[in-house]
Amino acid sequence: MANETHALNERAQLLLKTLVERYIADGQPVGSRALSKFSGLDLSPASIRNVMADLEDMGLIASPHTSAGRIPTPRGYRFFVDTLLTIKPLDRVEINQLEGQLQVESTQKLVASASQVLSEITRFAGVVVTPRRSAGFRHIEFLRLAEKRLLLILVTAEGDVQNRIIQTEKAYTPSELIEAANMLNQNYAGCTFEEIRRRIQSELKQLREDMSQLMTAALAAGDQAVSESAEDVVISGGMNLLGINDLSSNMTKLRDLFNLFEHRATLLQLLDVSSRAQGVQIFIGGEAGLTPLDECSVVTAPYEVDGKIVGTVGVIGPTRMAYERVIPIVDITAKLLSSALTQR
Amino acid sequence: MANETHALNERAQLLLKTLVERYIADGQPVGSRALSKFSGLDLSPASIRNVMADLEDMGLIASPHTSAGRIPTPRGYRFFVDTLLTIKPLDRVEINQLEGQLQVESTQKLVASASQVLSEITRFAGVVVTPRRSAGFRHIEFLRLAEKRLLLILVTAEGDVQNRIIQTEKAYTPSELIEAANMLNQNYAGCTFEEIRRRIQSELKQLREDMSQLMTAALAAGDQAVSESAEDVVISGGMNLLGINDLSSNMTKLRDLFNLFEHRATLLQLLDVSSRAQGVQIFIGGEAGLTPLDECSVVTAPYEVDGKIVGTVGVIGPTRMAYERVIPIVDITAKLLSSALTQR
DNA sequence: CATTGGCGCTCTGTTGCAGAGAGTGCTGAG
DNA sequence: CTCAGCACTCTCTGCAACAGAGCGCCAATG
């Protein structure tokens, strides 16, 4: 027993690799005979059994019961994706296809379509964390709808547009509205609402009474607009997971999973962690500490605007997924999203 | 055998009613003994068996196999909801609860929250068809974002706000933009874009060249905004259907159902039909002609704006659902939605 | 000493079978 | 018309037997 240390010899690694690949392809436990056929090595099943016993001792594979083949453990998957996996880059064609399906009209649509594209192309669930907004604005405008109803139009620093209808106590004249908008735009564009509030507070006495009312109403609406469109997670194609028999065998587990989807908060936490890392990250099984994700893996990649990470895209699927395909897809999607968001 | 005609005598009706009620409550086929216990009539199981045989002959109930109890057929359900069902109106409390959960901020939110409320309160899937927009506008505004980028703000006749970013070939001055917006607002407010297009075409020569370019860009954007926000169906809580064992017993059926959800077009067709009727409508099983809805029922009610029907709300659940609860819920939701939409 | 063929062991999945339980249809009596 | 009783049918469960798959171990081999 020389190889009980962490260093797997080359043969053991190759065997583990083919075992994982075959299991991902078939979904069936892999036996020594099958492995001897597909490994490429010219070894008899008996020899392979010895190696498999070692791999099992190291906690990389396990057998569901004495007389079935072996399947990878979470640790086995981890070793596989970390050191054995050979990812093939995407075709130019596939990249174009991805790019073509992103809807660039607005940030919201962009994010939603990214999630949808991921789910469609991988046939798993696509998730995207929407960018956290900096609470500033680029431009503000009032539009008179009715006697005492105003439409507040807010162009955020990211170039996104928000609308809010506000009720006022007093009826403002068009010129008053223009004056107020001008004042906000000229003096405070780029500031957060908190900053504006502080500064206005100190200048309050100089403002006409009616104007200050309008200002505070606008600030409140702005705050609300920003907080409402805070970080959130968009999930597409959750239904796809129904088709995965790895999961659907266990109805309760599946329902737990969907429950997790509805409670976005916990999911957000997981995805936030991933946004601290640089490239593609992979969470296998319950690594994230979320039990409902027991037999799932999460593949994520952060995306950025102007070089700053603002969110995360990813895919949730069964642990037994074709990583070599999913990883580049998530990677490219994150990059496409980054460039689409930076352009605007 | 005098009662083989369509006229069910009172006793048979009562028995059918309790049978359906018990089946809806238990989900188990109902046998003659159970029926004799719960019907309230003082009959022995043997007599009841005679009546049940009649009901089976008429196609109102059926047995899954020789020695199980009976379950209602689709025709049985239909008869039940048409003539036997006693619906109890909602509590004041429940109505308030419903009302409280509707988010009235915008039409979109209102519709989305209606769907969500329905799904949460019934624990089935909630569906709402968004109102088809009349293609007119109430107010239009241009906002300068950058050199040649304008933000077009469109307040629709329904009071909804749409934004569109348009690229122009020429850089317009603020005063030109205001002039263009004023012209559109003063002359064409309330018209459809098609009308405006026709009228502008004839007046084209009188317009300055650069202005006409801006106008046509605005019209195109307006058209797009309107067509994009055409009729659509919003589905909430599709996941709820996972919990229904009536359906989850059959994974394939469940998947078909979710496929139907993704292809909104077909669903839209069904819900459109329902909008022609006046009050609550119930589609049982495949009555709608959609096979994936085999073991489902759809309960719908149209909602209106200013007395004109503009959309449909409803619930999709298992055929074995508590109609006496679901029907008033859908009914009230439609009414609340109507009044919320009419107020604005 | 790594490799290999062989043998016994264990576990699963399927099949056949018997018995219990549930519910029906029918019949004959009140 | 109602009802008790009886035979019949169908499902469900547990049990036993059996084939298949795969492993571990051991002894033989180059």
Quick synopsis:
Chain A has 344 residues and is of the alpha+beta class.
Describe the structure.
- 2 copies of one chain form a homodimer.
- Chain A has 344 residues and is of the alpha+beta class.
- Chain A folds into 3 domains: 10-84, Arc Repressor Mutant, subunit A (Orthogonal Bundle), CATH 1.10.10; 92-132 and 231-343, 2-Layer Sandwich (Beta-Lactamase), CATH 3.30.450.40; 137-228, Enolase-like, domain 1, CATH 3.30.390.60.
- Chain A has 13 helices and 10 strands.
- The first copy, chain A, has helices at 10-26, 32-38, 45-57, 74-84, 92-101, 107-122, 174-188, 193-203, 209-228, 245-248, 251-262, 264-274, 323-343, and strands spanning 61-62, 71-72, 125-129, 137-146, 149-156, 161-167, 233-236, 281-284, 296-305, 308-318.
- In chain A, the strands form 3 sheets. In chain A, strands 7-3-10-9-8 form a 5-stranded antiparallel β-sheet. The first copy, chain A, has a 3-stranded antiparallel β-sheet with strand order 4-5-6.
- In chain A, strand 9 (296-305) and strand 10 (308-318) form a beta hairpin.
- In chain A, helix 2 packs across helix 3, helix 6 runs antiparallel to helix 13 (323-343) and helix 8 (193-203) runs antiparallel to helix 9.
- Mean pLDDT of chain A is 84; it is low at 1-5.
- The A-B interface holds A 105-106, 139, 141, 143, 145, 151, 153, 155, 159, 161, 163, 165, 238-239, 242-243, 248, 251, 254-255, 258, 261-262 and B 105-106, 139, 141, 143, 145, 151, 153, 155, 159, 161, 163, 165, 238-239, 242-243, 248, 251, 254-255, 258-259, 261-262.
